[in-house]
């Protein structure tokens, strides 16, 4: 079995403890991965004076794949989001967040199976804000033809590869005729021109939100611009048990960074109560990605065994507190490890 090298950024807040839990599970499952540890965010600021040190960026560029814990973004002035900076630096324009019902995790819905595709580099995350005149501030929403087209193509290609049936765009093109209009038209065009076999629909985002909480099964793949993707990701997390169970991947042309949808959750950091599952699921996505890109099929098997093990643990009621259980972060990892089948 080949050894794969992956950059590991533990992050801050609950980052280090959920990272430890995930590493333990991956090791127990026999994933042949050599981790190259680097820092980002507050931990990096403390040791190197920079939130994104050059050696971290170089390592990601060199190895192409990273598993990343959450990095705190302070609200307000003087500190721009590390997550956003990373996505921009490597032009990781496609964020993918699968949202699925889990065995043993009871929620309002039983068979949620959605994939959120979020455009990761444009929209209101352009970070262009200014004071027009005292008392009047402005934030710029950016959409480019290139940005809208490439995410539309990415989404339809992804849906085709994964044998999904339908893509729905949430938008507010009735108000933001130019920006959301461009996003919407690009998706429509890509569907008509290149992917007529994938069904395409759109919904105004407010009505879409209502329909999502009434009956999520009417949607399949959701394609969203940056800010809508951020908000809808958390909403959809709520459909399946919360932020502790939604993983994510950020893809560019060359690099890929895998991270949970949730943030650093400072309120529960250092208490061994955070759910490591979202990061573990992100690691499983990473194993599948590595298998695909390196043609090392043994990783598919490792990924499947981890998935089976956490499904079984959840089914048996072995859960962290956010899911109504009573296990700590490390104890949940052990419950998963106990269930990993060895060939
Ligand atoms: P960000 O700005 O980085 O997105 P946020 O303010 O949205 O951060 P999160 O850290 O994502 O906040 O989480 C919101 C709350 O959800 C946390 O305060 C915590 O109580 C809960 N939470 C998030 N992740 C987890 C987890 N892995 N396990 C348990 N609870 C979690
Ligand atoms: Mg958040």
TrEMBL record:
It comes from the Eukaryota. Residues 5-336 form the Isopropylmalate dehydrogenase-like domain. One of its GO terms (biological process) is tricarboxylic acid cycle. SUPFAM superfamilies: Isocitrate/Isopropylmalate dehydrogenase-like. One of its GO terms (molecular function) is isocitrate dehydrogenase (NAD+) activity. Keywords: Oxidoreductase. InterPro entries: IsoCit/isopropylmalate_DH_CS, IsoPropMal-DH-like_dom. Gene3D superfamilies: Isopropylmalate Dehydrogenase (3.40.718.10). Belongs to the isocitrate and isopropylmalate dehydrogenases family. This is IDH3A protein. It comes from Symbiodinium necroappetens.
């Amino acid at each position: 079995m080949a050894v794969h090298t992956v950059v590991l950024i533990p992050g801050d807040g609950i980052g280090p403890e959920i990272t430890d839990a995930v590493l333990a599970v991956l090791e127990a499952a026999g994933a042949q991965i050599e981790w190259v540890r680097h820092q980002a965010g507050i931990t990096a600021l403390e040791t190197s004076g920079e939130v994104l040190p050059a050696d971290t960026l170089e390592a990601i560029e060199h190895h192409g794949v990273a598993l990343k814990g959450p990095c705190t973004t302070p609200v307000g002035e003087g500190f721009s989001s590390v997550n956003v900076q990373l996505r921009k630096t490597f032009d990781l324009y496609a964020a993918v967040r699968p949202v699925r019902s889990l065995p043993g995790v009871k929620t309002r819905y039983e068979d949620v199976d959605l994939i959120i595709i979020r455009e990761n580099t444009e929209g209101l995350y352009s970070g262009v804000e200014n004071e027009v005149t005292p008392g009047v501030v402005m934030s710029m929403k950016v959409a480019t033809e290139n940005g809208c087209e490439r995410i539309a193509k990415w989404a339809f290609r992804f849906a085709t590869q994964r044998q999904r049936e339908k893509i729905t765009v949430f938008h507010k093109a009735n108000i933001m005729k130019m920006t959301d209009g461009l996003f919407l038209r690009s998706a429509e065009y890509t569907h008509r021109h290149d992917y007529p076999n994938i069904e395409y629909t759109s919904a105004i985002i407010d009505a879409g939100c209502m329909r999502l909480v009434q009956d999520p099964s009417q949607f399949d793949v959701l394609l969203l611009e940056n800010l809508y993707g951020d908000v809808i990701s958390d909403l959809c997390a709520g459909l399946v048990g919360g932020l502790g169970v939604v993983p994510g991947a950020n893809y560019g042309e060359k690099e890929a960074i895998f991270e949970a949808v949730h943030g650093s959750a400072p309120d529960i950091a250092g208490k061994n109560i955070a759910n490591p599952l979202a990061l573990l699921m992100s690691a499983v996505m990473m194993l599948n990605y590595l298998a695909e890109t390196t043609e090392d099929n043994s990783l598919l098997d490792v990924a499947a065994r981890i998935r089976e093990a956490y499904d079984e643990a959840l089914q048996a009621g072995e859960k962290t507190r956010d899911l109504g259980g009573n296990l700590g972060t490390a104890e949940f990892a052990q419950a998963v490890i106990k269930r990993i089948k060895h060939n």
